[in-house]
Amino acid sequence: MPFINSKVNVALSEEEKELIKDKLGQSISLIQGKSESWLMVGFEDNYSLYFKGKNNTKLAFVEVKIFGHASDRDLDHLTAEISRIF
Q1: Any alpha helices (H) in the chain, and if so which ranges?
Q2: What is the CATH number of the domain that holds 54?
Q3: Contact status, residue 24 vs residue 74, Cβ threshold 8 Å
Q4: What residue ranges in 1-86 does DSSP mark as E strands?
C-alpha cells in the first residue's frame, strides 16, 4: 500500500484536494505494480512551513512511502510528476 502525505502552507478546498488526489492516483501507476486502488493519500493544509527561515511563498512537503520494491527510474518519474502536480 503506497502512502502519499502532503503538508502545504496554504488552505486547500475540498475540490482542490479531490483534484490532487485524482492526479496522485494516476501518477502512482508510474511505479510498476502500484495502482490507485491501494493508494492512501493524506493532506495537511495551512501547515506552518519555512524554507531558508522564511514562510513568504507557497510551500509543499510531500512524503511518499512505497512498501515493496520500486526502481530508481520509476521513483524519479514519480517524483517529477508529484512535483508537477503540486
Answers
A1: 14-27, 72-85
A2: 3.30.429.10
A3: no
A4: 3-8, 40-44, 60-65
Give the model's pLDDT for residue 4.
98
**pLDDT score recorded for residue 34:** 94
**How many separate domains does the chain show?**
1
Domain of 69, in residue numbers = 3-85
User: Looking at residue 51, what DSSP letter applies?
Assistant: B
DSSP at 54: B
For position 1, what pLDDT does the model report?
87
Question: Nearest to residue 64, comparing CAs of 81, 47, 46, 45?
Answer: 81
Set of cell numbers at residue 46: 495551512
- Tell me the mean pLDDT per 10 residues along the chain, length 86: 96 98 97 95 98 95 94 97 97
